[in-house]
Known about the structure:
Distance between the termini: 61 Å
Structural class: alpha/beta
CATH topology of the largest domain: Rossmann fold
Helix content: 25-40%
Number of domains: 4
Number of strands: 30
Largest sheet: 7 strands, mixed
Radius of gyration: 31 Å
CATH architecture of the largest domain: 3-Layer(aba) Sandwich
Number of helices: 26
Shape: flat
Amino acid sequence: MEALASTASHPTVKWTPSDDASDIVKSIHAMLHPRNIVLVGATDKPGNYAERIWNNLIKYKFAGGLFPINSKRETIWGVTCYKDFASLPEKPDHVLVLVPARFAVQVVRDAAAAGARSATIVTSGFSELQDEESQRLAVELKQTIKETGLAVTGPNCLGNLSAGENLFTNIDDRIVTMEQGAVAIAGQSGAIVMAIRQALEDRGVGVGYMVTTGNESGLETPDLMSYFAADPSIRVIVVYLEGVRNTKVFREACKAARAAGKPVIALKLGASEGGRAAAMAHTGALAGSIETFDAISTREGVIRVRGLDELIETTECFVHADPPKGNRLAAVSLSGGKRGLLIDAFHSAGLNFAPLSPNASAQLAQMLGPGSIVGNPLDAGFAAVVDPSVYMKSIKIMIDDPDTDIVIIDAELPKAPHELRERNLRIVNEMAGQANKPVIYISAMSIGFTEFTKGLRKSLPNIAVMQGLDRAVGATKSLIEYAGLRKEVPDIVSSSKASARAVLEKTLKAADGAAALDEVASKRLLKAYGIPISKEAVAQTAAEAVKIAKQIGFPVVAKVVSPDILHKSDVGGVVLNLANAAEVKKAFNDITARVKKLKGKPKLEGILIAQQVKADVELVVGASLDAEMGPVVLFGTGGVDIELMKDVALAGAPLDAAEAKQLIAKTKAGVKLKGYRGRPALHEPSAVKALVGLSNLMADADGRIASIDVNPFLINSKLGVAVDGLIVLNNAAARKAAGH
């Protein structure tokens, strides 16, 4: 028996990366468009992965060569089985590794030596397990992939789909429609990625690519995002992420997709502590804060969804609806009750239905007759019963109205042939194709798609068909927000001065392995980066404290200075409202006495005497180094209300003044800065300066600072100043102090 070597010509590829495309894009193209596929570890044991993948390659008629390898077999599955790569009739191109983990590394080496360009390692038993041998194999595999330069997905994955090539190296034995669809899917969980593909297919949405990345010892999901961004056949990129290993690569992939006008719809594990723990157990990923992920990725065009149903609706929306020019909604319903549901659902999402233009309102009033209520959303139910043409005329008026940006139609697709409804749908599809605005059908509830429904849906490419009112509303809001993003996301780089960077290096060197900087050192560094701080000085004696207080002007504050005391108020190390010399002297002596009685004998470096600023609002500004996404800055309501209010917003670092203002505007504290309920506006420029300075400091520190806490940052109508500051370093001492 002969192997299924290709006799037909290789399928024509519609797109090939240009010569100036990145190496990663070229290598992924080779993986998804191979000349042949070699299955190493072929066995006909019933139900095993190798046989299921082989059957899929035959079923969907992959046109390249197919070669099984097993040194102990001469034939398998009715074709020739080869002993090794050297015995193949042609050079291997894409290799499926199905041998046990202990043999996989050598297979990758041998495949590269034989001329293969890519591989998928289905085998598990690497970093997803915690035993010493599995971890050792994971390290060896990663190094081998790097040395060989192969484009590799896996290990611990379930294979890929490339519809244009009829390539399905996957174990899924459900029916798969091979069409060059506009959606590409990639993710670490094979089961979830396969479920997404199946759900989209059931909804009549074509999937051009599906790649399961598993443990990501080679290619990572962001690498696939970059490839999908470059492929013109793809309109929407869907990803399942358990963790982001390389923040820079992820952000560059997001930027590439945004520049290409392709939304990245992401289901991200790690919204809870349990979810982050599950990510660690599953693929060894290090999952960080979901709020930080949102803060950084949303800026660059990522739409994070909370579940699979929401993912499907959002994907459906973006596949069939272009981002609108604005947020003016219009809707047509055949039910007064559903009209009310539409109003409530969109209002809850912060979206409202716009007044129609006078011309559109007049046309509807004339058509519906005297006494009719012409509103938006429009209830055309009663009039349509009397004259069915009213329904279609109403939709056309809404679509043609220049004062609407999105048209919503309350209806679902039929499950069986229905001449009138099919005709109406095709007319609306044609109108939508001619209109420069999205047209979205929304069913208030989820309904099943029959084979007839799926076929009908595919014939209506110009309209989005969505199910479940709340999910549809969320997807529509995402469509509007995506339209408001800048297409080109500029690189924000640190704008710090050389003098500030010099202070940073000197301060970190002087810290010499300390867990944190004391308040004086912290503020000195903050001041170097342009963050306004209060007038202050350190006193070593009570007399010196009084002298400093008189120079600053009463009232003042006294605070302990010690690298061993991070939370001063907890040990009685802060005294406020010191109005005269006697009170300053007493505060100095009291704090000194309390510190000397503490266990552990913390080092006392003096007492800080600082200006007491009268504040209208207490803010918190800060920064931290996220485990996944890197440095972020924080702004919000501070002081004692920080835990109660939970009024904070995050942004990636570094940021510029414009982004700092946008960050401030996301909070209730930002509303107060503008002058709330007749009160005077507060000094917002100082808050902006502090945020930009903090973000520059975190960027320049390049991972050496774990967090910066400025709470409170006091602000009034004339100034804003940091009256406290704590900088925690990212070193062994800090991690030990934090209990890690």
